[in-house]
Amino acid sequence: MTTPILSLQNVEKRFGKNHVLRGVTLDVAPGESLVVIGGSGSGKSVMLKNALGLMTPDSGQILFNGEDVTQSRGKTRARMRERVGMLFQSGALFDSLTVWENVAFRLVNSGIVNRSKAKDRAIETLSKVRLGSDVADLYPAEISGGMQKRVSLARSIISKPDLIFFDEPTTGLDPITADAINDLIIEQVRGLGAATVTITHDMSSARKIADEVAMLFEGKIIWRGKASEVDSSGNPYVDQFVHGRADGPIQPAL
Amino acid sequence: MSNASTRKRGIPNPLAWIGAAALGLFAEIGRLAVFSARVKAAAFTPRWYFGQIWKQIIQIGFYSLPVVGLSAIFIGAALALNIYQGGSRFGAEQFVPNIVVLGITRELGATITALMLAGRVSAGISAEIGAMRVTEQIDALESLSASPYRYLYAPRFIAALIALPMLVLVADIIGVMGGWAVSVFGLGFDSTVYLRNTLDFVTRNDVLTGLIKAVVFGAVIALMGCYQGDKSKAGATGVGRAATLSMVGAAVLVLASNYIMSTLFVEFGL
User: Where exactly are the transmembrane stretches of this chain (chain A) (predicted)?
Assistant: First the structure.
């Protein structure tokens, strides 16, 4: 059996009295596209931040390629992060840097290449997400929200990572731009052969990019199956969420 | 209903309130101490982002020159007027240049500069880092294998340590010249005599104590800005609150550390 590239085992996280993750267990195989769905406040972003090492779980284990990285810091953590990309919900582009400096940040920061070569690589990667070299010297505030997402996507794939996290990649975009982002994710990620973990509540996005779908509810994975099975899961929570009904076991977050 | 439960639900127990406030204060001091230690560790060990440090020296030092210069000239001028007015009560008007240069170099040059920078720089750093925190830019930095302590906080800390003494030196010169201008053009002092008295009276220790204070004030201003920004809560209110807290905290700590340092300088005869 192949070692999962990412494995969360019984991960728990609390913030004061708020018990957000209550034992999340999840495996992601190399090259697999897993989409985690769940309502607002279900703990999706917290799960992702724990997996990426931006937060430390209160208990449980996180394994990256079989290596325990739950409490890792310093070089071990840096080694893991070199092989991981992340597209943040807000894009999280550095507003004091130009578009190409954002895209090439990892290359320049790690000293892999000099600035001139890094700029060439950034422009090449921008072309993969359908952005021309004319945007390279602009600042993030000077481009649209959809373009910012594409720049962020370019930043997450430039170092050819083995695993990419997508946090609500289509949130805040119009349906056409959202679909274009989904296409780019599929095209670029398949091209790299990277595994992906996407968290979203956009079901059309989930159906399009997922090999498998898992549902997080009240801090636990309550269902996991193939993307083609999500509409006939037989799980009342998944059914309610997938069909966007107010009536059902999940109470609307009002 | 028992008395105990009435107290629990109704009137707050003052001892419990004081206890909670004290615990909160100690916890905050502890968090600030740990944060400061991590920033200092990042500032004094490689790797250094020289581009970021230079950018911050320009931001903190160069762009603060107008506000520091204007503040210093008015403080120096007002100081000369007040010393002249007070000194004239017992025929000591001639000491205006001596007291102006002493007051500016040992005390006011550094303190006024630091207070102005608590507003301009500490609040600015805090707002910038707070905005980066709430827009996930700091998380993005970490995800790209860059430490925010090395990339964001240490450059601001180092830049403040370098820029503050330079600004204080400028404030000292401009402050003394403010006193000179008022004395010569308003109070009838002879220009050459005023400047000669100033230069004869001021000692290296007077200037040095002001510069030592400036280094400490620089550390306080940068650390408070970075700390409050780093723990900023989401939203415009959170970032605004962080900016306010950093400014107020930096100003209070500048004044408190100024008193402590002045005491030590007197103790050691500096």
Answer: none
Question: Distance (Å) from the C-alpha of residue A244 to the closest C-alpha of chain B?
Answer: 28
- The domain of A233 spans 1-83+207-254
**Total tally of structural domains belonging to chain B:** 1
Non-local (6+) Cβ contacts of B40 within 8 A are: B157
Query: CB-based contact (8 Å) between B145 and chain A?
Result: yes
Q: Which residue of A has its CA nearest to B48?
A: A109
Q: Does A89 touch chain B (CB under 8 A)?
A: yes
Distance from CA of B140 to the nearest CA of A (A): 6
Q: Which two tokens stand for residue B78?
A: 């007002």
B58 touches chain A (CB under 8 A): no
Is residue B78 less than 8 Å (CB to CB) from chain A?
no
In A, minimum Cα distance to B139 occurs at A54
Domain membership of residue A230 (yes or no) is yes
Confidence grade of residue B174 (pLDDT, cut at 50, 70, 90):
very high
Looking at the domain assignment, is residue B224 inside a domain? yes
Per the prediction, chain B carries an average pLDDT of 93
The ipTM, to two decimals, is 0.89
Q: Which residue in the set B132, B136, B146 is minimally distant from A88, CB to CB?
A: B136
B14 within domain boundaries: no
Does pTM top 0.80 for this prediction?
Answer: yes
B15 domain residue, yes or no: no
SS3 state at A13:
strand
Residue B17 lies in a domain: no
Residue A42 in domain: yes
CB pairs under 8 A between A and B: 44
Q: Which long-range contacts (CB under 8 A, 24 or more apart) does A184-192 make?
A: A184/A128, A184/A129, A184/A130, A184/A150, A184/A153, A185/A153, A185/A209, A188/A128, A188/A129, A188/A153, A188/A157, A189/A33, A189/A157, A189/A164, A192/A157, A192/A160, A192/A161
- Give the domain CATH number at A15: 3.40.50.300
pLDDT in tens, A2-38: 899 999 999 999 998 899 999 999 999 999 999 999 9
Is A219 a member of any domain?
Answer: yes
Predicted confidence (pLDDT) per residue in A118-164, tens digit: 999 999 999 988 899 999 999 999 999 889 999 999 999 999 999 99
Could you tell me the residue range of the domain that residue B78 belongs to?
47-267
